Structure formats: C-alpha cells, structure tokens
Amino acid sequence: MGLNLRERLNLAIYDSKDKVLQILWRISLAVSIIALGTLLYIHGFDIDNQTEQGMLLIIKVCFSFYVLRYFTRLMFAFDITSFLKNTWFEGILVGFLLTEGISDILFKKLITQRVLESLGYLGSIEIDSIFIQSLLFMLVIMEIGKSSELFPRIKVHPSYLFLLSFIIIIFFGTLMLMLPEATVQEGSMSLIDALFTATSAVSVTGLIVVDTATFYSPKGHLIIMALMQIGALNVIAFGVFFTLFSKFKISMIQHQVTEDFFGGHESHFTAQGMLRKIILWSFVIEVIGAVLIYYTWTNEAGFTSYSEKVFSSIFHSISAFNNGGFSLFSNGFTNEAVHLNYGLHTVIIGLMFIGTLGFIPLFDLFNYSKLKDRWQYPWKQISFSSKISIYFSLGLITLGMVAFFFLEYNNTLQGKSFLESIVTSLFQAITPRNIGFNTVDLKDCTIPMLVIFMFLMFVGAGSASSGGGIRTSSFALLYASAIATITGKRDAELFKRSIPHDLIFKAISVCFFFLLGTSLTCLLLTITESHILAMPNRDFMDVLFESVSAFTTTGLSMGITPELSDAGKVIEILAMYIGRVGTLSVAYIFGRKVISTSYKYAEGNTLVG
C-alpha cells in the first residue's frame, strides 16, 4: 500500500517537477550569493552586535532555504534510496542543520553549543557560530559546484578554462585580503600588495611583500591558508576534470597531454575516482603532519594560547605539503624561535618531500591494492613514471644535500654538529624543489651554492604535484636524450624502456618555455628594479635568483621582494601566474586538433653546436 501511495504521489507531481526544480535552482544561486556576501561582511568588517544579529538572521534564512530545497528534491525523487545515496553528504549537513534549528527554537541554544559548554570550553558561543557558518559555506560551495553542469554546454578550449579558474581564485583572494579584518593595520591592504599575496598563495609560491606573521590578522592567515590549499588542488583537479573529455569533446591529443601530466595512461580509466582519492590523501597527510608538528613545538615558539598552537601546526602542515612557502614566523624558519628546532625541521622535510614527489608515485607506492599485488607477485614493479619521479627526486636531493654540506661547511653550517649539519643540508636540498622554506639566510650562502639552488628550482617538483619548474619528468627525459646522443643510440632509454620521440619534444618545449620565461622576467626586473641593483650589498645575482624563484613558483628569495617597485611586483605577479599555469595550458593549446599530420617536408641539415 505504501509503494502504491508513493507511485501515485510521483504521478501527481510529475508534470510540475521540472518547473519547480528549475525555480529552486535559480533561487539557490541568489541565496548562495547572499550567503557568501553575508559571510564576507561578518568576517571582513568590524561590525556592532546589532548588525551582527541581523547578519545571523540572514544566515538562518539561508539555512532554512537549503533544508526546504533538499526535502523538495527528496519529494520529487522517484527512487528515494538512490537519491539519499547520491546526496549522502549534503543530507548529513541538512539533517544536522535541521536538528540544530529545532534545538534553537525549543531550547534557545544549539546542540553544539551545549556540548562545548559541557566540556568546559568558555568560548563555545564563538566556536559554535564559526562552525555553523562553516557548514553554510560548505553548502554554498556545493551549490556553486553544481553549476558546473553548465560547463559541457560551453564550447571553450579547456586551457582557457584552466587559465580562467586561477584568475577567478586570485581575484576573490585579492578581495578577501583587502577586507579590513584581514590585517592588523587600519584600513585595507593596498590592491597591488593584496594581488601579489593572493597570486603567491594560489600559485603556491611563497614570495611575500609584507611580513605574513605580523601584518595579517588570524582571519588573514586563514585566507592565505585556504588560498594555498585551493591553489594546490586546482591543478590536479583540472587535470582530472579534463580527462572526463566526453563532456567537453576534448580531442585525443589533448587527452594524451592530460595523461602525460598525471604520468601514465592508467589515469584516464580512474580519473573520476582519482580526485576523490587525492583530496582524501591530502587531508590525511596534512592532519598527520599537523599532529606531528604540534608535538615538536618548543617554548621558544612563544604561543599564547592552545588555539594559536593548533592553527600554526595546521598552517605549516598545509604550507609544507602543498609547497606553499608561507610561514607564521617572521623570516620563516630562520626565525630564532624555530631555526634550531630540528625535530620540527625533520617533520617539515618529510612533508616537503611527499608534497614534491607527486600523487601518482604515492598511490603507486602505498595504495593497498598495489602493495598487495606486489606482495603476491614480486615480479611486479612500480610504474615507469613513478620510477622517474622517485629516483630522480632522490638523486637531485642527494646532489643538493652533498653540495650544501661541503660548500657551506665553513660558512652557514659553521658551529653545528654533524647531525645538525646533515638535517640542515637536507632541508636546504629539498626546499628549492618548490617549497620556499629555508633555515639559513640565503644571503649568507656562497655563489656556487646559489647557482645549484637555481638549478634545483628550475627542475622543480614531480609531475602531478603542486610544485612548479619543468618537473623531474621533463628533466629525466632531457637527461635520457643527452645520454642517447652522447652514446650514439637511436632512441633514448630509461629504466630499460625506450622513450617515444614525441615525449622528448614535449620535454624540450617545456624547458625552452621556462628558459624564455625566466630570462624575460630577469630582463624586465633589471629594468624596473635598478634602485635595488644600485644598493650596496646587492647585485645581479639577487635579481636573477628572484626571477628563477618567481617563474618556477618556488618562493625562495635573497630578501629583495619587499623592496620591489609596483612595476616589479606586477612583473612577478605575471611570472608566478604564467609559471603556475603555463606548461599545462600551453600544452593544451598546442594540443588542438590539426587538419592533417600525414605529411613530411624534405629534410634540412645544419651544423649543431
């Protein structure tokens, strides 16, 4: 009888289903905009209690709409079980909000507030408010995400969407950093400085024009942390997004470019689950990193509260794993409070190494199913792309560590024990691979070591990571090509595998692109920053190092970033942006389908070298 009643209800409301859902969808877009604006106003401006109560009333109305919309969609669903399964996360949020709403009406107090008070936390009202507003933000993001269903109708080249996505994130990041409550200074941050910081955070570079520790308020620190996380995941997310080429009608050539980005053809068949896996693994690694960092803090860190200690742990874990390079200490890890905390340095080293390795090698090494297969079938090995990332990463890190140990032994390592020197050398060897942290002042390093730093920055991190540079895969292919040329072999080889010529051509193109970009950035900075070159104790090396760091999105600096002119800041903004999105987007642009490739011109010969 219940089933028949359900069928009758479905038939009765079937004709109005599309119209009602369309109206609710349009209203939800307006509600999402209002909700976002309300949250920005609450947290971005200093408002009185009366205004805050009015804003909270708007939030409650938004919550009520989302609850109503969810149950309306549930009512129109023909298969309730499938609907609940497909919207389980949204359902949990809506159920929690509904429960809290009932508690607020009946008892004038939220359940979470009562729980926190029962645990003896005096600031429960503030935390409860932030928690509820965070739930609203999650619902808003989910609603905006659903608008991506419109993307398949937009006939725009994928590379342009990729470029636009970063521009949009940087734009909103700039606006949020300009909010009065984002800094401890009176008024708003200047547009150029906010744009520079937002670009640096989204591109996970780490170059700063103001002191992150002292200039920004806790809300500003939260904004920077969110921008680093979003910026790091955006590259991977778009790589996965584009592999779903059926929605965008992407050509197979463009699809192959995406496969190269992920490191193998296998990624195409698992693209839909890969983004979920990446987000989950990132979250787990960052949480573990934050816990380990929390227990390495010493009294010298000077935290004044438990919450400050927790937030600093989370911030530095996200910054290290995502190659962000931002720190909550003035002068980063060269600050006196942390520069001798080798336990902290060791944890950061681990997070930096994992972050620069790339997700594909991580999945290949530690995925349960792959570990099980290798245990049952010892002859099975990790993938070719994973071998490149792992072995070349270890080789480059070893090169950097040994070079730093011997070149700086009587310089920046002077006075340290052997073990302290090893940890310091290892830290400095990993950080040029696109993190931007350093435990020694780079201005004190020798010229040969700075040259090696620039080489490591230029090579960068592994593919399918949030790092920049030409990537270890491109460097490995160039290395194999050079060895093949020297030994007179027809094909380049690595790990007993022949490398297709088209991959070599791509690696050469990427290398040329970064050489050109770095050179142009350096040339323009020598023109606009002549005042820096005229300073005592400053020379061309400072500008060259800054240029390589900006275009490869590394974040290391000789200390000239705060001294840049507005023109110089604009140049570095463009360098960080192009360096972040350039390689993949250019590959997509040149991946466009041509009319024909079944022709060949007569060979031309010339002298080489």
| Biggest sheet descriptor | 2 strands, antiparallel
Output the helix-strand order.
Answer: HHHHHHHHHHHHHHHHHHHHHHEEHHHH
Structural class: mainly alpha
How many beta strands in the DSSP annotation?
2
Distance between the termini: 86 Å
Compact description:
By secondary structure, the protein is mostly helical. It has 26 helices and two strands.
Explain the overall architecture:
- By secondary structure, the chain is mainly alpha-helical.
- It is 69% helix and 1% strand.
- The protein has 26 helices and two strands.
- The chain has a two-stranded antiparallel ribbon.
- A hairpin with a 2-residue loop joins strand 1 and strand 2.
- The longest helix is centred in the first third of the chain and has 43 residues, at 2-44.
- The radius of gyration is 26 Å and the shape is globular.
